[in-house]
Amino acid sequence: MLTGGIEAGGTKFVCAVGKGSGEIIDKVTFPTTTPDETLRRVRDYFSEFSIRAIGIGSFGPVDLDKKSTSYGTILHTPKQQWRQFDLLTAMKEYVQVPLFLDTDVNAAALGEYKYGVAQKDQSCLYITVGTGIGAGFVKDGVTYQGKSHPEMGHIMIQKHTDDYFAGICPSHGACLEGLASGPAIEKRYGKKAELLASHKEVWELEAFYLAQAIINYTLVLSPERVIIGGGVMKQHELYQRIRNYFSQLMNNYVELGNLEDFITAPTLSDEQGIKGAIALTYME
Amino acid sequence: MLTGGIEAGGTKFVCAVGKGSGEIIDKVTFPTTTPDETLRRVRDYFSEFSIRAIGIGSFGPVDLDKKSTSYGTILHTPKQQWRQFDLLTAMKEYVQVPLFLDTDVNAAALGEYKYGVAQKDQSCLYITVGTGIGAGFVKDGVTYQGKSHPEMGHIMIQKHTDDYFAGICPSHGACLEGLASGPAIEKRYGKKAELLASHKEVWELEAFYLAQAIINYTLVLSPERVIIGGGVMKQHELYQRIRNYFSQLMNNYVELGNLEDFITAPTLSDEQGIKGAIALTYME
Ligand SMILES: Nc1ncnc2c1ncn2[C@@H]1O[C@H](COP(=O)(O)OP(=O)(O)O)[C@@H](O)[C@H]1O
Ligand SMILES: Nc1ncnc2c1ncn2[C@@H]1O[C@H](COP(=O)(O)OP(=O)(O)O)[C@@H](O)[C@H]1O
Ligand SMILES: [Zn+2]
Ligand SMILES: [Zn+2]
Question: What is any Pfam family matched here (chains A, B) (predicted)?
Fold first, then answer.
């Protein structure tokens, strides 16, 4: 039987129908507008298929504490209309199949774990570097969750001594996201990140920060593989620069084998999130 | 039936015999000398009891990757005679009961989780700040382990702009352990940490670093509770200073309830490690 998946983003929703093998049968993308209008499009889309369940990889932060009264609610998003929106309860009114909710980054991690570059690994961390920075983690086939879900993008790292930029995180200023997200790059240099390709110093600094983040995640979680995606990573030279800083700063403290294997790009051509959302329904 | 526990430290070994309830029947402490002499004392001690298993919370780093050929081996410790010593294989020759090996900090976390301050929590992080800095994590009754065990003490954090100390970590210089361990304090101020009690600035800076570390661990693992122990935390005023910095730097980004409950001292009077070692044999 077919399974539904939703990659619920702040800008766009991707809905798809697929199989447990990772094969996508059909897929549609539409802009995220009001919750009501968006969920109607979700319902209309899935009504044409006979599906057993829907997995949702959601933007957030979203309350994933099952003991919480606001379980399934989108919390402090900049998107006014979605703030405090009880996504899970609303979805239950629009569709009548079992729902499996997780973060967008956990879904992406699960996608690469089941169908992508981490298929042979016991665990993998998936980091996205785009409008924000976030990370999801899968171990032994299960997405990681603590009391609520991690918020790895906001960790503190060592600022570069030559970097006088104050950071743009509204909560922390110079946390990782405040220093290294796409909008942080844009604010620091006064130009969109995609227009800075030829400026080596931009990507050196970016790699310095991302390498530190990966070091911290590695020292805390000890994952078998780290996958980095998101708009900013379209600057492919970043991968090698990150590996270089990682190697220099970590100084072989932990045995990780070949860094070309340890720190890699996703391999599912931007379908890791939606494939992972479908895979959420098969978890455990 | 009784169970054995070993808190295997670089300075001393604690061996004890106890029950699943957390009750300790008998306990002995002796200095860590050569591996052979030390393990003989371990064998002699346990030979007087009829025990079903022994749990070992070991100093390290120790290889805990069950797929590794050096599983159970102490890795790059400063203690020459113990470097590359295959603790688990050697122990098997000295005692004939099943052995359960984990890190000292994971054992301490498990001790507080089962018998101490975190008894009602689903997860807890235990940090020790002493000669080194390390942390262990328990979730749903199981100690956390990745590819190998975490090395959380060596994460990168933001250096204080007034701190010109280069850090003392042989691998990373100014990582957390390099900046905030007991020996780091001693090196920075030219005096043992225990003799600096009246110097407020010492504990302000220490709290600034430890708060950042707890922020990072919290954003990655999302634990229900964070327990901090170790020699340096004998400066009890540190707890409130850490909470203050944590609150200021985290800026309510994650909902954690009362910080007095979230960031606490251990409650097992230095027996968290040995009780946790015994508890390792009951895990899962
Ligand atoms: N080719 C590129 N090089 C560098 N940065 C890029 C590139 N393309 C997009 N970005 C940056 O990535 C961010 C958008 O990230 P993306 O992952 O596409 O979206 P989102 O995070 O909103 O899902 C923007 O800040 C943009 O400037
Ligand atoms: N009362 C104290 N105040 C501050 N620091 C202390 C105190 N007692 C011990 N220390 C420091 O703690 C470190 C030893 O930590 P401890 O946890 O006792 O041992 P270990 O980490 O070797 O197991 C030393 O660096 C010592 O200076
Ligand atoms: Zn932030
Ligand atoms: Zn270090």
Answer: ROK
